[in-house]
Amino acid sequence: MEILALIALLLSLIVVFVVLYNRLITLRNGYKNAFAQIDVQLKRRHDLIPKLIDAVKGYMKHERETLDSVINARDTADIARQAAGSATPDAIAQLGKAEGQLDAVLGRLFALSEAYPDLKASANFAQYQEELTSTENRVAYARQHYNDSVLAYNNAVESIPSNLIAGPFGFRMAQMLDFSAQPEIQSMPDASFN
To answer: How many other CB atoms are found less than 10 A from the CB of residue 184?
Structure first.
């Protein structure tokens, strides 16, 4: 009788282990798949930016610095996107920072475009701006799905009893993706009237 109880207990522990391990695998694959969806949209975004710049160049000849900033930020973000395929926390954080900086320079470009009525009336510019806006909306949706998937995965990695399996089997915390730019801290201007 004791042997049967011991066998039943052992089988129960094996079933619990398998269920928890498979749940961790499913959650990890879920957040990796969610990142793949972000990657598709970011690639589309990065491919649209040179087309937008080409549409803008003829109108904004005196804004070369801004155009160069957009291209440099796009190139940096594309390199970070490719590196983030590894899904390491550092690579995801770098991608978030690079995309935040790209958002900031694109915002400057669109703000400057307001000063060029002929540019605003350009069908090419309007089309690329609309496509870029649509793609950014898709990126935001995909990023939200990714962050939700990461949250579920991280909760499983830290929660009892799955954390007893996560640690020994190499399930590490995943990094959320945040596109907020980290502006450089600038000193306040001197406001003295002496």
So the answer is: 5
For residue 91, tell me if it sits in a domain.
Answer: yes
Coil, strand or helix: which one is 114?
coil
| Two tokens, residue 63 | 């804004």
Q: Say whether pLDDT at 187 is over 50.
A: no
Structural domain total, the chain: 1
Q: Note whether 41 and 135 are within 8 A (CB).
A: yes
Report DSSP state, residue 173.
Answer: P
- Alpha-carbon distance of 153 to 145, in angstroms, equals 12
Q: What is the CATH number of the domain that holds 162?
A: 1.20.1440.20
Residue 185 has pLDDT above 50, yes or no: no
User: Are 20 and 161 within 8 A, CB to CB?
Assistant: yes
The C-alpha atoms of residue 151 and residue 170 are separated, in whole angstroms, by: 17
Whole-number Å distance between alpha carbons of 41 and 143: 10
Q: Can you read off the two tokens belonging to residue 7?
A: 């066998």
From the number of C-beta atoms within 10 Å of its C-beta (0-12, 13-18, 19+), residue 15 rates as exposed
pLDDT in tens, 132-142: 999 999 999 99
Is the distance from CB of 143 to CB of 37 less than 8 angstroms? Answer: no
- CA 119 to CA 140: how far, in whole Å? 27
105-130 tens-digit pLDDT = 999 998 888 888 888 788 888 899 99
